[in-house]
Amino acid sequence: MGAVAAAPVAAQASPKAPTRSSVYQPPKIAWGACHDDTLTGIGAQCGYLVVPLDYAFPNGHKIKIAVSRLLHKSGTSYQGAMFTNPGGPGGSGLDLPVLAQYVPKHAGDGYDWYGFDPRGVGSSIPSLSCDRHWTKPDRPPYDPTTAAIHRAWVKRSKAYAAKCAHTAGHALFNHVRTTDTVNDMESLRRAIGRRQINYYGFSYGTYLGSVYMTLHPTRVRRFVLDSTVDPRTAFYKSNLDQDVAFQRTFNIYFKWLAKYHSVYHVGASFRTVRARYLATIAKLNRHAARGILGGDEFIDVFTSAGYYVYGWEDIAKAYSAYINHKNPSALIALYRQADPTTAGGDNEDALYLGTQCTDARWPRSQARLDRDSRRLNKKYNYFTWSNAWFNGPCAYWHFPGRIHPFKVSGRKVHAKILMIDETYDAATPYEGSLYVRKLFRGASLIEGRDGTTHAGSLSGVSCTDNAIATYLATGKTPARRSGNRSDKVCPPVPKPNPLADANARSAATAGVAHRSPVLLRILQDAQLVR
Q1: Band of the pLDDT at 20, cuts 50, 70, 90?
Q2: Whole-model pTM above 0.90?
Q3: Burial readout 343-382 (b: 16 or more C-beta within 10 A, e: otherwise)
Q4: Which residues carry out catalysis?
Q5: In 10 A of CB 422, how many CB atoms?
Q6: What is the CB neighbour count within 10 angstroms for residue 499?
Q7: Helix, strand, or coil here: 448?
Q8: What pLDDT digit, counting tens, does each position of 392-424 carry?
Q9: Are 435 and 232 in contact (CB under 8 A)?
């Protein structure tokens, strides 16, 4: 959904002197029609949740959180409110009530499904944007092989941070930490009058859920965490861990490209595919195709292959067209789709940085950042510099943050939790899921064995999705096993087979549907922020 024009947020509170308080009771939400085809199509309602800019001063300046709801179906056993988050941070979740229709066996029908745009995001007011041209091509090469390239990226990092410090509504950047969004979730719970909530979170949304459970353990009923963030690494170290994990997942994709050389003709062996990929980056760094597709833009297109198998064929076709027919049109289209430069196009990026840069202390030394990236890039040279510069503004961020990451604890959580992850998830490496499973004694983990897809639940893999349906319907989770391992092993989201004809594809994927384009768009928009 398009962002609402930003309304200024005062740096000071309203003229009436605010008082400190630990409790805020929001007004009721005025529910009405939605202005989004996805939401109107499923019969959802929309409104605004009014919350304090700063919860320490609940009678101070207010902001509005855009929320949506899809009420439970009549005649079903009512299960309560289901809150959702697609990840990011900074991802728009207003459309996420569509999840209800993808839970097998109608197990989602008994819930009221709630979506929301976190503070500063999308249709919430204000909706923040710092520089719509943040990802406008052609940018300097990610790999700073010369001092000039390095200076250019540092200048860009400083400039974006400075623009965020002066954008309309910038005071909100002081209050976009995960704990602020947890407070908004609590306000939503109070506004709808529920004693407990259910929750379905993807990617960063799992961290949001983990922090919520830690702070409000008695409010937890049924929580689904898909692709879990390791709370110990929030968030600088988590980005370094991604550099390693994406190398492995990219290599899996390169091997898939080599397997189908007869289709795409980009290399018959892994070594050839890898060498051509790196050579293509070098070529585009020297001369951007049509002045748009430089090495950076090319890397950004391939990045989604590290998240999902869903787009493997589209990327392969676009890459093949460029390699074999000198036609970059499809690659350029994929890049523009993922990195818009329209008004407010950097909204999710801005709020991603706003949260990542302040949830825990980020290194303020460019020398330290360079040292870490150069060390990793020696061995993990696909993603390291891309990731470093995307997060570069954090070193120059103008808003203070927590000194240490929030300490997640499941000690007081007695509800059963269901977790899902795939073995080679690159965005939130699998080790994080194992760690969070340890923290929450009632958690059970489903592993998509040897899969590479991030946040892939409700994609039609019956083993996984039926377990989710059982949990949402009855609260039953797979039996917890001893040791540091998953509790249930399922097939991963399957890799595509471009050689199969339509009938063979149908047979090979019996029970496995491609993820809904609407759901894929919501999650991809949120998670490809990083």
Answers
A1: low
A2: yes
A3: ebbbbbbbbbbbbbbbbbebeeebeebeebbeebbeebeb
A4: 203, 425, 454
A5: 29
A6: 11
A7: strand
A8: 999 999 999 999 999 999 999 999 999 999 999
A9: yes
